[in-house]
C-alpha cells in the first residue's frame, strides 16, 4: 500500500513538473497544462521545436490566399492595405486567445478546434463549429486541387501534351493523397511545410520582380485604373483577406506538438509578421502594377515564360505539400470521433481502416473540384462561409464565454466589436456576392475558370 502511495505522489509530482501556465491580465483565471493520458499532454508527442511550429503556421496560412490578395485590393481599393494590416493583428490576437481557450479547464487541455465549441456551448455548439471547421479544411483542399490542376494542365498544353483538365486534377489529388495516407500526425507532415514555406517566398519574389520589370509596357498598353474605396465589393475583399489569414483551425494541433508550448504567442507573432509582410508586398505590388485589370490568381497576369513557369511550379508544389497538413488536421479529429484507433482495431487493421477513410476523403474532394472548377469563386465562397467564422467570430465568442467580458481590457472590447463586425459583413454579404459570382460563371460557361478579372 505504501508503495502505491509513493508511486501516486511521484506521478503527481511529474504532472506538476510539466505544468505550463498561461496567464493574462485582469480577472482571467490561470489555466494550466497537466500531463495526463491525453495525446497532447504526453511528452512523447511534444517533440517539435519552435521552428517547426513557425514553418507549419506560415505554410498553412500563406497558401493560395496570397494569390488572391492583389485582386482583393482591386475589390476593396487601396483601403484594403489597412484591412490586411488589421487582419495580421487579428491573426495574432485570435490565435493567442484561441490557445488560451484550450486551457480554460485547469484539469485538462482540449484537443481540437471543435472541442472548444463543444465546451463553450455544448453538443450543438460542437456541431455548429464542426460545420464551419470542416468546410474550411475541405474547401481549402478543393481550392488547392483546382489551382494546381489548372496550372499542371497549362504547363502540359504549352508542351503540346493534352490530357485534359480533369486528368491533371486527378494527378494532383493522387500526389496529395500519398503523404496523407502514409503520415498519421501533424509532427510527421511538418517536414513538408518547410518546402511549402520556401516555395511561397520564392513565388512572391518572382511575381513582384516580373511584374515590375513589365510594369512600363503594361501601363503603356493598358488603361490602368485604381480606386481608394469600393464599398459595393468590400465584403468580397474581406472574405478573401480572411481566407488568406485563416489558420486557426490548425493551431491547436500545431501547439499540441510543440516541445515548449509556452512559446506559442512568440512563435505565432513571428509567423504572422512574416505572413503579413509577404501579403503586403504581393498585394501592393500586384495592384500597383496591374490596377483594376489584375487577375485572380495574380500569376495569370504574368506573361508566359520561364519566370511564370517557375512560379507556377513552385506554388503548385506548395499547395500539394500543404494539403496533407490541412487534411491531417481533419483526419485526426474525424478518426478520433469515429474511434479509428489502434486500441480498437489493432495496428494492422487500424491502418487499413484509416487508409480507406482517407482515400475516400481525397476521392470526394477530387469529385467536388472537377464539378466546380472556379478558383476565384470557390476561394471567395469558402472565405465568406467558413474563414470569416473560424478566424473572426469563434475565438472572440469562445473567449468571452469562458472568461467573461471583464477579462477583456477596454481596448480589447472595442477591438472585439470591430472583429465581430468584419466577420458578420464577410459572412453575410461576402457569401451573397460569392454565390452570385459562381452562378454567373456557371451560366456564362467561363472558358478560363481559374481566373477572374
From TrEMBL:
It is found in: Membrane. GO terms for cellular component: vacuolar membrane. InterPro entries: AA_transpt_TM (IPR013057). Residues 50-435 form the Amino acid transporter transmembrane domain. The keyword Transmembrane helix applies. Keywords: Amino-acid transport, Membrane, Transmembrane, Transmembrane helix, Transport. GO terms for molecular function: L-amino acid transmembrane transporter activity. It comes from the Eukaryota. Its main location: membrane. The chain crosses the membrane at residues 53-73, 79-103, 124-147, 167-183, 190-213, 233-254, 266-289, 309-334, 355-375, 381-402, 414-439. It is a multi-pass membrane protein. Belongs to the amino acid/polyamine transporter 2 family. This is Amino acid transporter transmembrane domain-containing protein. It comes from Dimargaris verticillata. The lineage of its organism: Eukaryota, Fungi, Fungi incertae sedis, Zoopagomycota, Kickxellomycotina.
